[in-house]
Every structure is written in C-alpha cells, then in structure tokens.
Amino acid sequence: MSTTIIVPQGFQYVAASLLSTVVVLVGQNITVSRWRKRSGIKYPQLYAEKAETAASKDALVFNCAQRAHQNTLENIPIIYLTTLLAAVKFPIVAASACGLWSLSRIAYTRGYLTGVPAKRVGIFHVAGSVAMLGLLLTSFYTVGDLVVSNL
Q1: CATH assignment of 11-149, given 1.10.760.10, 1.10.3210.10, 3.40.50.720, 1.20.120.550?
Q2: How far is residue 88's CA from residue 25's CA, in Å, rounded to a whole number?
Q3: At the N or C end, where does the chain have fewer CB atoms within 10 A?
Q4: Tens digit of each residue's pLDDT (9 = 90 or more) over 93-145
Q5: d(CA 83, CA 14)
C-alpha cells in the first residue's frame, strides 16, 4: 500500500532550510571535537572544570563551543516542528525563518568561540530569536486555521 503526500508549492525551500540546520549541527560538532582535542579534555567529561578553564583558554573555549552546540540541540526540536507546521500554509516564510535561524546559530557559535560568552549575543542572535518567534506564531496560526476549517 502506498500513500501520496502532497506538499505545498515552495516546499523545496523548506527542505533546504531544514538541511541547513544539519550543516550547522555538523559544524558545531566538528568544532567541539577540535576544541576538546586542543584542550585535552577527555571523554566522558562533558565540560572542563572551573580550575581547568582558569588554567587554560583552550579549556574555556571548549566549554563555550560545547555550550553553543548544546544550546542549538536544545532549540532544534522547536525549530523542526514549527518550521514544518508553518510550512503547511506559508512555505516561503517558514523556509526563510528557518534559514535565518541557522545563520544566527553560526554567528552565535562564532561569538561564543571568542571565549567571551557575552559575545554570543548580537544582532544575529536577535534575528534568530525573531525568526523563532515568527515560526511559533505562524505555526499557531496554521494549526488554528486547520482546526477551524475542519469544524
């Protein structure tokens, strides 16, 4: 038995934007691995201890890389779900917001990698938050519209 799924026109952009999140995650994973090796923090230790970061800038940057990656992992389920829900009615908006969020994560990570955690926040971080809010709002609108139209 086969099932046909009809996706809205423009859904290829949604697929590309979702794939961009994978590129971000792989890049962050590589970055964490590089800084783990450089700092000498062995597995299974998740983060460098306070004394290690005080003694080594590499250990501090490792922690920053690890935290940037972890924060992205914490947010990615929200991005995936809201992008797919919003894309049902607004595929170009959803793709644009998801792509902007991915770009914001690159800037967030690069800022964190300075070793000064406050530098993770900037205009791109704000843009990523706006993109996430936009996805959330369009998702609620889409779901509400689907529910109302099927009453």
Answers
A1: 1.20.120.550
A2: 25
A3: N
A4: 999 999 999 999 999 999 999 999 899 988 888 999 999 999 999 999 999 99
A5: 8
